[in-house]
Amino acid sequence: MTQHDFRPSRRTVLAGIGATALGAGTITFPGAGMAQDLKGGTLRVGLPNDMTNYDPMQFSTVNFFMIKNLYDALIEYDENGNPVPGLATEWTIADDNTSVTVKLRDDVTFHSGNAFDSAAVVATLEKAADPEKGKNVYSTMSIVKDWSADDAHTVTINFNDPVPDRQILDLLQFLLPLDPEGIADVETVPAGTGPFLLADRKVGQSVTLKRNPDYWRPDQPILDEIVFTVFSDNAAATSALESGSVDLVYGGGSRAAVRLRDAGYQVLQGPGKLVQVFRINSTKGPFRNKAFRQAFNHLMNRPAILKVGYAGLGEATALPWAPASPASDPSFNDTYAFDVDKAKALLDQSGLSDAEMSDWALLVNGSDEASVAISQVVQSSLREVGIEIELDVRQGAEFIDALLSGDFAAVFGGVGNVQKFPSRVATNSIYRTVKNPVFGDPHPHPAYVEAIKRVDNSFGEDVQPAYDNLNEVLVDEAFAIPTNTYETGLIVASDKLGGFTLDIDNLLVGRTIGFK
């Protein structure tokens, strides 16, 4: 059996950013800052976008600033991808990889004062397994058969088939336990164990968090309060940083970050790259035609998109993987490079008229300057092959609603979890294999669904062929066309702050931050 047993007698505080190996038998924690040099106070954070809700299973990038501040995970990854304890103290994977048994901390309470125990994990699993309530976590639960609470602080999760170790760890890392009494209202009232409590929210304006005095990690959080202010756009947020009105900007654009880095501000890039994807609703208009969709593999001027949208911070990619993913294959970048002639050949093969090929609009996130810029690049590229389209620019909640409900013909949107086990890509709405909000059920791309299943059930020498098959299916079905990796959750901060933790998903971790 594979056993991970971490039971330190005291919490070890590490210096700097990232985890440091301290020797056999010693636990390491991701990115804990040197508490003796850091002071509390009120951290003022600028945001370019408001959040949607407090449900951690709504894993949208606009929610990244608050998830790890209100909730804790069963386990965490350090910035190198090594698992470390969170609310779980140890976990044991069965010899046949068909189950995992998780031991839980017995000294943790939810913000409500209710005790954290196995009943809370069971309630969280039940929510995650619901196709509607599970949201972005639901697809990850497809490997789970059932579960049981063995005692007050032990849970066993059983799988439908043998599951690779890393996929099991990804599941534990993605589960952020909820207070059973708060699940029904979690979208409007947080129900976590995290280092901060919700103090106030003004929709569209600000979110204020205050220190959790009963937090289970010793000496954390360092800060007394975090005030998040929502600005009209990234330019306004960065101007506030330069004027001293805020101490930090989270989730801003790469172009501004490069400029501010050159001006002497701290810029922190985490390991959790996103991939920008041209999402296609293959149930609408000309996109029902496969050859038409495939032409977009060659209509994406990836180097131009990376330069214009992200100031070159990232890598061009024709596949939805961050470079660290085991499914990454850079050869696809050459095979599916920007090529007008290849695109025209596929458009001719589609049999569609010029009018039919232009009968759609590109939905654009008007609140995100990168999305606006790259949408204009694509609009120009399409014009080269005779496709004339309009940009449907929407702001804030109106855009998010359209994105998550599939109310679009095509749209750019980032996808995450692409640095982990490859089938985690299915946590993103456009890549969900069941209850897909864009495609519905049954899924119109069964070859993709089967390719994900094959990845989930491959071991040993069958693993690489499963990854290769998934990549071939993705470019063949062409319902999502990746363009580049990019930084999400970028932190641009004044030099008076320290103790930053680089989260594997680039979520903002406030518990280790303090003032120098």
Provide structural commentary:
This protein has helices at residues 64-70, 118-128, 165-174, 234-243, 254-262, 290-299, 302-310, 331-335, 340-350, 354-357, 369-384, 396-405, 446-456, 463-477, and strands at residues 2-5, 42-47, 75-77, 83-85, 88-93, 99-104, 144-151, 154-159, 196-202, 206-211, 225-230, 248-250, 266-268, 274-280, 361-365, 390-394, 410-415, 480-486, 491-493, 497-498, 514-515. A hairpin with a 5-residue loop joins strand 3 and strand 4. The strands form 5 sheets. Strands 9-10-11-2-12-19-13 form a 7-stranded mixed beta sheet, with helices on both faces. The chain has 14 helices and 21 strands. The protein is of the alpha+beta class and 516 residues long.
Largest sheet: 7 strands, mixed
N-end to C-end Cα span: 45 Å
Based on secondary structure, the structural category is alpha+beta
Q: How helix-rich are the residues, as a percent range?
A: 25-40%
Radius of gyration: 23 Å
What's the helix count?
A: 14
